[in-house]
């Protein structure tokens, strides 16, 4: 256990991370601006719909142009969430919320050109989400049949699998997707408020509408029989819908400063489980992020009626400090946050984001984090986050950047259809469903570099095998990248 004196008090500094694995250089410097640029560029590779003339990921082309036709509505656009060709609304809305929060919290740290690119990436998502709530008492939650899609290895430009539209109509519940959509649109309304107030108002108006649906028809969207077969087992609601109700209300409170949303968070906190499952943050479980978000009002505006949220946020953050008596987050031998299951880097990026946001709240009010036996300075939270960032970018036992296209050593066989199949611009002939298997099974590197994609990452032993078939480790997702945009932006301005 190591301590350092800061400002006359004793604060924990995570020196265990600096010496956790002496056989690789933890001090290697990184070009955070280059990584930020690439992290944003990645979203262009995930685009669905008609691509603009300034599309920089030039190996991609138009796709999904008939999406929504079975409902006689336009559902083109948006993002494919990962390496397949499905548009899942639940993780896409969370991705959008995190892109917006990245801009809100760290946009001022971004170079102007990258801030513009971040806004473009965000608007590609919000334009689509507006379409999903465009009809009264209905929310579109998914486009594409996962069964047929996952049975094929096809470029998005060649898709001939069913583009099934999954919609939830009142009074059927969709509190999770509608609540997350409300959060995404409300957060984005804040992000766009200065640059495009008209669009910001549109986003906010639709955020309120989405939240009303979420609150009026309570329940999980994946409990609907007509949805379950499409959403599950991929993006079922595994952790309950209650957190999305609070999350949506919290973002609407921040966007509107309306006391009705403050009252909602205050009065519904216990009944909706605000004290539950606080040690996770991702597309399915919003509790830790909710608590950090709401803590801003307590820390900066002394809204003590929300003090329980701050207590929960700090309880969560203390679990990340190995020397804390409440520590129970697992780290790999090389220092990476690790949680069992696939796509582990989603936890590393989202948790690092929360650490930096909370550190900002504390710094602005000259406060620290109390972890029982320890007093933790904001800078400690930042150092913990930086360790995760540097690990992802290459300071790890494999010496491998888990961001594609960053540095000279990164995964070349990622689990991603468009990246692994020849570009339609190089191979104009149609590649049918099963014909793509040849490329999936090939040991050759992917012909198209999906620049900026962050893969699922290594196992608990820090080992990563560059294997296209190992989707739990080699598949990138939008919700890994989205919080990392904000994290990288902070370190662009504060590299050391």
Using brief descriptors, characterize the structure shown.
496 residues; mainly alpha; Glycosyltransferase; three-stranded antiparallel sheet; two-stranded antiparallel ribbon; 18 helices; 9 strands; 6% strand; globular; disordered N terminus
Secondary structure topology:
Elements lengths: L2 E4 L2 E4 L2 H4 L13 H14 L41 E2 H18 L5 H21 L5 E6 L2 H5 L14 E5 L5 H17 L5 H20 L8 H7 L10 H15 L2 H10 L18 H15 L5 H13 L10 E2 L5 E2 L6 H20 L4 E2 L4 E2 L1 H16 L23 H4 L16 H4 L30 H4 L3 H16 L3
Antiparallel strand pairs: 1-2, 3-4, 4-5, 6-7, 8-9
Helix pairs in contact: 2-4, 2-18, 3-4, 3-6, 3-18, 4-6, 6-7, 6-9, 7-9, 9-10, 9-11, 11-12, 11-13, 13-14, 13-18
Molecular structure report:
Its EC number is 3.2.1.4. It holds the Pfam family Glyco_hydro_9. This is Endoglucanase. With 496 residues, the chain is mainly alpha-helical. It has a single domain, classed as Glycosyltransferase. Helices cover 45% and strands 6% of the residues. The chain contains 18 helices and nine strands. The strands form four sheets. The chain has a three-stranded antiparallel sheet. Strands 1-2 form a two-stranded antiparallel ribbon. Strands 6-7 form a two-stranded antiparallel sheet. A hairpin with a 4-residue loop joins strand 8 (369-370) and strand 9. The radius of gyration is 22 Å and the shape is globular.
């Amino acid at each position: 256990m190591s301590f350092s004196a800061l400002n006359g008090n004793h604060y924990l500094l995570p020196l265990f991370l600096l010496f956790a694995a002496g056989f690789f250089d933890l001090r290697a410097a990184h070009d955070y601006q280059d990584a930020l640029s690439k992290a944003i560029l990645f979203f262009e590779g995930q685009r669905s719909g008609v691509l603009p003339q300034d599309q920089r990921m030039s190996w991609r082309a138009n796709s999904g142009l008939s999406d929504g036709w079975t409902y006689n509505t336009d559902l083109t656009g948006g993002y494919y969430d990962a390496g397949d060709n499905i548009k899942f609304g639940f993780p896409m809305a969370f991705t959008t919320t995190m892109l917006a929060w990245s801009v809100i919290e760290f946009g001022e740290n971004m170079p102007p050109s990258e801030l513009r690119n971040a806004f473009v990436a965000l608007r590609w998502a919000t334009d689509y989400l507006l379409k999903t709530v465009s009809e009264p008492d209905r929310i579109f939650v998914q486009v594409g049949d996962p069964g047929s899609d996952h049975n094929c290895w096809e470029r998005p430009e060649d898709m001939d699998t069913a583009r099934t539209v999954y919609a939830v109509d009142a009074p059927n519940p969709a509190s999770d997707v509608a609540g997350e959509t409300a959060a995404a649109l409300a957060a984005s309304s804040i992000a766009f408020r200065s640059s495009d107030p008209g669009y910001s108002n549109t986003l906010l108006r639709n955020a309120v509408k989405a939240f009303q649906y979420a609150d009026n028809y309570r329940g999980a969207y994946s409990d609907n029989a007509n949805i379950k077969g499409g959403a599950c087992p991929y993006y079922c609601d595994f952790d309950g819908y209650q957190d999305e109700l609070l999350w949506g209300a919290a973002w609407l409170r921040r966007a509107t400063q309306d006391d009705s949303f403050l009252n909602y968070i205050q009065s519904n906190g216990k009944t909706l489980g605000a004290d539950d499952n606080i040690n996770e943050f991702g597309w399915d479980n919003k509790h830790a992020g909710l608590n950090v978000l709401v803590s801003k009002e307590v820390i900066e505006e002394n809204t003590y009626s929300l003090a329980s949220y701050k207590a929960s946020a700090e309880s969560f953050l203390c679990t990340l400090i190995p020397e804390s008596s409440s520590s129970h987050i697992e780290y790999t031998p090389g220092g990476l946050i690790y949680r069992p299951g696939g796509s582990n880097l989603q936890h590393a990026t989202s948790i690092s984001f929360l650490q930096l946001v909370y550190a900002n709240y504390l710094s602005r009010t000259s406060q620290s984090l109390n972890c029982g036996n320890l007093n933790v300075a904001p800078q400690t939270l930042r150092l913990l986050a930086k360790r995760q960032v540097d690990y992802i970018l290459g300071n790890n036992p494999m010496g491998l950047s888990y961001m594609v296209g960053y540095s000279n050593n990164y995964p070349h066989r990622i689990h991603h259809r468009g990246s692994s199949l020849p570009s339609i611009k190089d191979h104009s002939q149609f590649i049918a469903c099963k014909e793509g298997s040849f490329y999936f099974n090939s040991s050759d590197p992917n012909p198209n570099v999906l620049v900026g994609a962050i893969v699922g990452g290594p196992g608990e032993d820090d080992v990563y095998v560059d294997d296209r078939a190992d989707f739990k480790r080699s598949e990138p997702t939008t919700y890994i990248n989205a919080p990392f945009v904000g994290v990288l932006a902070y370190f662009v301005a504060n590299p050391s």
